[in-house]
Amino acid sequence: MPFATLPRTEIRLALVAGLIACASASPVRAQYAQGVSATIEAASDERRRGLSWSDGDPVLRGSVSVPVAQGFSLDGTAVSLWGSSRHGGAEAVLDLGGSYVRQIDGWRLSAEARYHLFPGASGQGYGEVGGGVGFLIGPANVDLNASYAPRQPSIGGENLYLSALAMVGVPGTPFTISGRIGRSSGDVRDPVQAARLRPDGVYWDHGISVDYLKGRWFAGVRYANSSIDGPMSRHAGARLIGRVGLAL
Q1: Is the pLDDT confidence value at 227 over 50?
Q2: Are 51 and 199 in contact (CB under 8 A)?
Q3: Does the chain have fewer CB atoms within 10 Å around its N or its C terminus?
Q4: Torsion angle of alpha carbons 24, 57, 127, 95, nearest 10°?
Q5: CATH classification for the domain delimited by 3-247, as one of 2.60.120.200, 3.40.50.2300, 3.50.50.60, 2.40.160.40
């Protein structure tokens, strides 16, 4: 029986099991110095680029990163969505891809390619590529990034996301404070489908986070908001989001 036609309860049970298995899978760590890394966490919302992907509901998230060469890794993340209205009733999103990071003196260069799958919904998947540069300004790490999803029917055109992130650790504490701002734009061919990622056309999002890391445990609280207003602002307005998790 195709996955999309399974009863909703069975899909949810399978997704929870998959999230736990994905995050707790810890293959032998001896191949590369960094080793395989994995995390599992719970969050009060799945908000990306100022938009809630889970209709404002809590989610489970599992991720794993496997180094395959110097600076290059294969990555996977699974997030429960429990019937997201933004993504055609999808029960989850699976982000699969690879990333490359290289440190050159005080500069950190990165590139990635990723495909987003949406179990429980048909015709919703889309891919994007991205790159970024990071550097230090005093005690702060600053990252400038760009992500581009070329024209695809599932997103009604193309999508370009530009963002800036600044992060600083609080001296003598396990706390980190960060702030970010981003801008979404792109060509629109199908306004209905384009509203998935850009419900108000070109828009800005911003946020501030405080994160805590102690051993393998981490927690955080994030304020997220966007410039989206009017009837398209549902699940896009100001929100405090909490999370707690474990690195495996």
Answers
A1: yes
A2: yes
A3: N
A4: 0
A5: 2.40.160.40
